[in-house]
């Protein structure tokens, strides 16, 4: 798979959260997003360096660095090799950051270019996913219909999952079921599609089919954390539905399959207690609720269990235990409210931000995905920390910190850059005289004049056929010697007979001239060749001299440009650092607001639970008081039968001065408000 955009851990959360708005999914709680292992890179050859570097950063979860490399590559000359793949990756990264309009524009540009069918199909898919995210479900379905070929396996499974969700939203359950059956059986998308279909059927007009699907999902063989979480979710949803239908036995069977220490164990334990409560097995109902009390006391399921235990005592007829448990519950809720107030105060003092920086961002970026940051407020924020929206805000905050760190690095790097530039300028200045001497056009002009003189000589030799002009030094020495011999013969010919010597001189001279004249064509061709080589060498020298002069001029201009860029960028980075600091402050305030809103919600929930506890407490006191009064003898003046004795078993009123039982005394007014 190319970097077209199937980093499932960053996109499926948004798809699944949008899915919750498609239909009546009351039981459909948040589904965990697919793990990174589900997103496998399809083998293909990376031919573009910038694209390869961006892919490396992308699969290291450094999306910002990937975007930076792709944007830098756009500013540099490049070939069309994998350019479309690069643009597809950039568009998907924009999508992951929520920049939907920028992502849409990128996809539209790709559609206007000449791209392969495979890339075009992936563009249709990404546009469909984008429109689904924006709530345009009809347009999303239309875009998916334009895909005319099978996508890579992992994208194909997600495409069918998306189509299944759209069909569920249109309540076309049969078509959705058929399509979900065609998803690869090994893909996690198949299980998500079946789960969403099951929940929709349960809440719709086919509850039996929905419960059957949930039961199947609740018994799948699973080893990885993702499928285990989905199996737990299916069993919990099925158990809750069975409780609503007052089928506690079936609910207990489903809830028993939820892992005791999984992420949904609290909700499952709470539901299990209510299932046993429906069966009238009050002692067994206390077992899972007491287990909850040993866990996080601020978890909503645990808080519900705190209130469920006294209600269970009351239903079992154990009024005394119920009264004490209701009073204890009210006290616990008071303590929790005090702790939540302290948590809000800690958040307002940047306790959460400090914990996020130290634990989850600066030292280990991936730790926030595994463990919450070490802080006194994180126990109250477990639900918020696990939410995709808050994780996205933390990621944005982390990226802002990265940007600020990069700006700080570049801001401190300018002195080093200025020193490097000065050293290069000094080295260039030192080499400039030698460079100017080697690129002197005066020397080249002298060489050109000498070449022209040589060319004239060659032309004269060719015109006159002067083979003697091409003799070498040895041959010239032989000719000179023959001339000297001829002069000597002429001098002694008057006194001596030199006919023999003259004949020998004539023969040797003829042989030498014959050889020279015979070799003349080859020698002249060699001279012409030397002239051609000389012309070529002079041309190259002139070109190199011109290049060197241009390099010298461009280097001087580059030095000036670098000076200007360094001075300009230093000021720009200073401004950017100010902007990033403002954005960081706003993001910190936003994160704190989300955390405080979460705690305020918990406070309202705890206040409501406390009110419920006090109401039930007052109600129980009233019932006990009424029972006590009903067992007391009726006064004679009210009955009109003064002589009738009290019936056996009636409770006598307390004697004056005796202490009234605590069951007969209603709580103080302050306790029931």
Question: Care to describe what's here?
Answer:
The chain is mostly helical. It has a domain at 1-154: Tetratricopeptide repeat domain (Serine Threonine Protein Phosphatase 5, Tetratricopeptide repeat, Alpha Horseshoe). It is built from 26 helices and no strands. Helix 2 (49-58) packs antiparallel against helix 3 (63-74), helix 6 runs antiparallel to helix 7 (137-145) and helix 23 packs antiparallel against helix 24 (499-630).
Keywords, please?
disordered N terminus; 26 helices; mainly alpha; 73% helix; Serine Threonine Protein Phosphatase 5, Tetratricopeptide repeat; 673 residues
Task: Please provide a brief summary of the model.
This protein has 673 residues and is mainly α. The protein has helices at 8-19, 49-58, 63-74, 83-96, 100-112, 117-133, 137-145, 153-169, 173-181, 188-203, 207-217, 225-244, 248-255, 265-278, 282-293, 300-315, 319-348, 351-361, 367-370, 382-385, 388-438, 441-464, 473-492, 499-630, 636-639, 669-672.
Assign a percent range to the helix content.
over 70%
Number of helices: 26
The number of strands is: 0
**What is the SS-derived class?**
mainly alpha
Tell me, briefly, the overall form. Answer: elongated
> Can you say what the CATH homologous superfamily of the domain at 1-154 is?
Tetratricopeptide repeat domain
CATH-scheme architecture of the domain at 1-154: Alpha Horseshoe
Q: What about the largest sheet?
A: none
Mean pLDDT rating = 77
């Amino acid at each position: 798979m190319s970097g077209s955009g199937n980093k499932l851990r960053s996109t499926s959360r948004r798809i699944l959260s949008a899915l919750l708005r498609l239909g009546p999914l009351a039981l459909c709680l948040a589904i965990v997003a697919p793990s990174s292992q589900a997103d496998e890179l399809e083998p293909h050859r990376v031919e573009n360096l910038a694209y390869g570097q961006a892919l490396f950063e992308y699969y290291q979860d450094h999306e910002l660095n990937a975007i930076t490399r792709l944007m830098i590559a756009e500013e540099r000359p490049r070939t069309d090799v994998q350019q479309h793949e690069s643009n597809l990756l950039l568009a998907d990264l924009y999508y992951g950051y929520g920049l939907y309009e920028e992502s849409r524009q990128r996809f539209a540009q790709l559609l206007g270019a000449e791209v392969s069918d495979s890339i075009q199909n992936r563009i249709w898919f990404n546009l469909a996913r984008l429109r689904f995210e924006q709530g345009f479900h009809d347009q999303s379905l239309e875009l998916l219909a334009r895909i005319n070929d099978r996508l890579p396996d992992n994208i194909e499974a997600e495409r069918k999952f998306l189509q299944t969700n759209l069909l569920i939203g249109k309540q076309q359950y049969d078509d959705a079921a058929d399509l979900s059956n065609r998803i690869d059986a090994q893909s996690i998308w198949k299980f998500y599609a079946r789960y969403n279909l099951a929940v929709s059927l349960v809440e719709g007009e086919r509850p039996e089919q929905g419960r059957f699907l949930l039961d199947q999902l609740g018994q799948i063989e699973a080893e990885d954390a993702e499928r285990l979480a989905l199996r737990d979710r299916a069993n919990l949803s099925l158990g809750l539905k069975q409780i609503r239908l007052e089928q506690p036995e079936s609910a207990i069977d489903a809830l028993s399959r939820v892992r005791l220490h999984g992420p949904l164990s609290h909700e499952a334990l709470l539901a299990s207690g209510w299932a046993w409560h429906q069966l009238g097995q009050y002692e067994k109902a206390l077992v899972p609720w007491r287990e909850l009390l040993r866990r996080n006391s601020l978890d909503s399921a645990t808080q519900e269990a705190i209130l469920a235990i006294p209600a269970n005592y009351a239903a079992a007829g154990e009024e005394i235990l119920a009264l004490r448990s209701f009073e204890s519950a009210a006290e616990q809720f008071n303590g929790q409210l005090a702790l939540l107030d302290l948590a809000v105060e800690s958040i307002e003092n940047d306790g959460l931000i400090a914990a996020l920086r130290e634990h989850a961002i600066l030292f280990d970026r991936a730790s926030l995905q595994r463990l919450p940051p070490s802080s006194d407020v994180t126990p109250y924020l477990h639900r918020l920390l696990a939410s995709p929206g808050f994780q996205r805000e933390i990621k944005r905050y982390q990226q802002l910190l990265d940007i600020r760190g990069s700006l700080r690095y570049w801001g401190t790097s300018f002195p080093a850059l200025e020193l490097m530039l000065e050293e290069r300028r000094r080295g260039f200045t030192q080499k400039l005289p030698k460079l100017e001497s080697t690129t002197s056009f005066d020397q080249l002009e002298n060489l050109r004049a000498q070449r022209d003189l040589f060319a004239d000589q060659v032309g004269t030799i060719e015109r006159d056929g002067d083979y003697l002009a091409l003799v070498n030094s040895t041959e010239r020495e032989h000719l000179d010697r023959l001339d000297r011999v001829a002069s000597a013969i002429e001098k002694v010919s008057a006194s001596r007979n030199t006919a023999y010597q003259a004949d020998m001189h004539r023969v040797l001279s003829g042989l030498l001239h014959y050889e020279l004249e015979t070799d003349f064509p080859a020698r002249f061709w060699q001279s012409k060749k030397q002239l051609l080589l000389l012309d070529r060498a002079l041309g190259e020298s002139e070109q190199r001299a011109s290049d060197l002069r241009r390099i010298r001029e461009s280097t001087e201009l580059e030095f000036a440009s670098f000076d200007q860029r360094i001075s300009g960028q230093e000021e720009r980075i200073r401004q950017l650092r100010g902007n990033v600091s403002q954005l960081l402050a706003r993001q910190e305030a936003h994160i704190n607001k989300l955390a405080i809103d979460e705690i305020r919600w918990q406070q309202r929930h705890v206040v409501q639970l406390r009110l419920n506890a006090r109401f039930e407490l007052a109600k129980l006191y009233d019932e006990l008081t009424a029972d006590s009064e009903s067992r007391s003898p009726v006064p004679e003046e009210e009955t009109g039968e003064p002589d009738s004795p009290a019936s056996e078993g009636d409770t006598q009123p307390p004697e004056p001065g005796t202490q009234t039982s605590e069951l007969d005394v209603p709580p103080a007014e302050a306790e029931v408000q």
